[in-house]
Amino acid sequence: MKDSDQFKYAENLIKKADDLISQSQEALKRYTSYSNIIANCQSAIELSTKAIFNLMGLEFPKYHQLLFEQKKEGKEIREDVKKLLQSNFPKNFAYKKELPRVIFLTYFWGQFYAIAKYGIDELNIPPDELFKREDAELAVNHAELCVRVANNLFYHRKREESE
Length: 163
Prior knowledge:
The protein is mainly alpha-helical. It contains six helices and no strands. It has helices at residues 3-30, 34-55, 72-85, 99-110, 113-118, 133-162. Helix 1 (3-30) runs antiparallel to helix 2, helix 2 (34-55) packs across helix 4 and helix 2 (34-55) packs parallel to helix 6. The longest helix has 30 residues, at 133-162. The model has no long low-confidence stretch (mean pLDDT 87).
């Protein structure tokens, strides 16, 4: 992938993530559904993480979450994450120390995606009975961090390429 295509792709993922956060912030103001906010924030976190992989020229895992404990896929994901964490990041990239946290948040929130969408169908518990406002606020805060990290990397990679 050419650098311009790579940047365009990453920029689009970051923009989509940012849009999901904006929708979630608006939903928090008027309470529509905390479970929808959780699902949107999980998607924003996932998109940001995939943008980070893309910006570093790495294939990103094609899963909704980073399931390290899965057999074959888990081993592949661990290798992908190791490559990312060992990458040569731009020298002015301010969030290198936050990358393990971004990976953790991707893993953590990925576990809630299906439950936020569908609830616990075997027990007939709808998703809106499972999540509270503080859960949604935490998800928004975590998604904002992930987008901030991806945006900062985008800025510095783009700047590095133009020098």
